[in-house]
Structures are given as C-alpha cells and as structure tokens.
Amino acid sequence: MHDIIHDLAQLVGGTECSIITTDHPKISNEKIRHASVFRSVLPQILTSKIKVQISEFLCNTKKLRTLYSHLPVERKETVIDLLANLKYLRILILSESEFDGLPSSVGSLLHLRYLDLSMNRLIRRLPRSICKLQNLQTLRLYACVQLEELPKDTWKIATLRHLEITSKQEFLPKKGIECLTSLRSVSIHNCYRLSTLVPGMQHWTALQKLSLIDCPRLSSLEFDLNSLISLETLEICNCSVLDLSGRLKKKDEDSLKGRRRLLSLIAGVNYRKEDKREQNEGGEKKEDGQQGLQKLRSLTFVQLPKLIELPYELKNAASSLQCLSISNCNNLSSLPDWLPQCTALKKLEIMKCRKLSSPPGSQDGKDYEVPYIMISPSQDELKELVQKKTLYRANTVDLDVLTEESSSLNEF
C-alpha cells in the first residue's frame, strides 16, 4: 500500500480504528470499533504474557465491531473470553490459529457477518450453535484439514453468501449446504475423501463462482451445472476422476480445468454433429440448453484428450467471448467455423495441441510445444486461422504487441 493511501485510510478511520502490535500491546482508545493485531517480533520471542495482555485489552473494548488477528490464537480459553466480551462483532478473523474447537458461545454473536477460521490445523468440529448466526454472510474454513464435518443444521444459515470448506467428509449432508440458495461463491478445497456432491445444489441459482480444487476422489457432481444460471466462474483443478460430461469412457485419462468467469459448463466434449440441435414437436429448431452462454467471457480447456472439436453450442457465446485458451488437447484437429464471429475476442491462446500445432508430416512432436497467441485479432485474421490446417507457420509471439496490449488484459 502506498504511504499516501495509508495516511488517507488512517485519516478516514480516525479514532475508531487501531493497530495493535506485540511490542506495544495497548489500545489507545477503548471506544475503537475496528482492531488488527500484528506480530512484530519473532515467534520464539513472543511470550505468553504479551498474548494475555493483548487478550485483556481486546476484551475491554466492548464496542468492537471488527477483529482481525494476525497473531495465531492457540488456546480455546482465549477464544471463549473474546466471544464472551465482544458481543457486537461483525467481522472475526482468526486464521492460522491452533485451537482445537470453537466454543458454543459463538452462537451469541448475533451481529456476526464474517467468520474466518481458515488454516487451523487442529479444529475438528464446529458447534451446532454456529447455525444460529442468522446474519452470517461469509464462512471460511479453508485448509482446516482436521475438520470432520459441517454441522447438520448448516442449512439454517439462510443469509450465507460465501463458503469455503476443507473437511474429511466422504459425502456432504443431503440436507445441508444445498439449501443455502443465497450463496454467491462456494470453494471446496483439499477434500481428499469427498466422493460426490449432492443433487440439491442445482438450486444455487444465485451462485456466481464454484471452485473444486484438489478433490482426488470426487467422481461426480450429481447435478446439472447448466442449472446454475448465474455462474460466472467455474474452477475445477486436480479432480482426476471427475466425469463432468457423463460421456467419457476413460475418466482416469481426463482432467478438466475450467476457470476465469466460465458461465456455463460445456458438458459435451464428445458431441456428435447430429446432436448439435434437436427438433421439437412443432418442427422448430431449439438449442441444446446452454442458456448461460450469452454471457460467457472467458473459456479455458486444459488436458482434454477426448476433445476433437469445440462444441457447437459455444457459438452462442461468440458475441461475448473475450478470452479463449486451449492447451494439452492433443486430439483437437480444427478450430470452429464460428470463431470469426467472436468480435469481442481479446486473447486467443493455443498451447500443446499436437494435431493442431504440428507441421504436416512432423513426427517428433517438438514444434507443437511452441505457444500460439493472438492479441485482439481482427475478423479477417480469425477467418484465415480457421481455414488453415495447421498453426505451424504462425507459431510466433510478438512481444512488442504483448507489451502494448498487456494493460487491456489485466482483468484476466
């Protein structure tokens, strides 16, 4: 942060904000509303006496609204004291702490909106009283590797909008987080035992971001991602046995990583041409149900050996697509005819697609390693690209152009 911005923030915050450090563990004003605790000495120098002093000072600030502790809390008793005295907390951040359980008194923080317990390696369970927090909007449980399960009454937190979890559960509760229809973002990280999600998640119609990362046993979603009509970002990484399309025969060979504002899952990487459109009873043509694609801005395909051609349904996104990235799709043999219609396209990136990028007759496979990148391509350039049978002659990157255009790509 620039010094000027820092000074401005202090001026605006006035006496209601305070920064507490371990070398000066005092609060200048008992009427403060927002406090951050920083560790300014080495961990081995930090004594229990200093920790007790900080805890006592915080407990005396009865009107505290925000507590952001960069100092790991190691004793459950300390948390109990804080919760007993800080009844008006709106934001509580105790990340990287090492207490083994959250006290049931957390249910008395009726004004709490943001609770961050991420990267706590010891916490095993959450009290059921946490489900009484009817104003809670954000719950972060990322990297809580010993967490056994979510409370059964999690569905009662109707106001919850952002959820990050890491747990040892094999199945998520059927009457659980799928009932949280106000959710805007869900991140499921490092759930090594999780094998499936629940069908009811299709009711997350307000969901804008879904992340599934490092869930090696997750084999199916059990719901149609196309029902998530507000989805803007889909990120799936290191879920090696996950079958998204339902048509792939060798799941263990496939890996999909979708990211960057993907508004609807492209479920059919093995679409046949005769499946592109269906006829209804009246003889009218109808599209194959990818209704969210009109808002698709960025699309990434990574490691899809079954991908021979891009699904026809992606044509619906031609007017909105801004970034298209394809890599490690060795069976992709051609680019779609509708590519020149992507008038909003700012970046096209193709990497390690053997059939598409190798020169005719090449067998050593070395040339396909060279990335092919186009920045803000024109319609004529895209037409020429589609007509080519190989990208070999165009396997160059103009670094000057990349430098000039980099500012327009920051959002990606």
Automatic annotation (TrEMBL):
The keyword Repeat applies. Signal peptide: none annotated. Residues 77-237 form the Disease resistance R13L4/SHOC-2-like LRR domain. GO terms for biological process: defense response. Keywords: Plant defense, Repeat. PANTHER family: DISEASE RESISTANCE PROTEIN RGA4, PLANT BROAD-SPECTRUM MILDEW RESISTANCE PROTEIN RPW8. This is DISEASE RESISTANCE PROTEIN RP. It comes from Salix viminalis (Common osier).
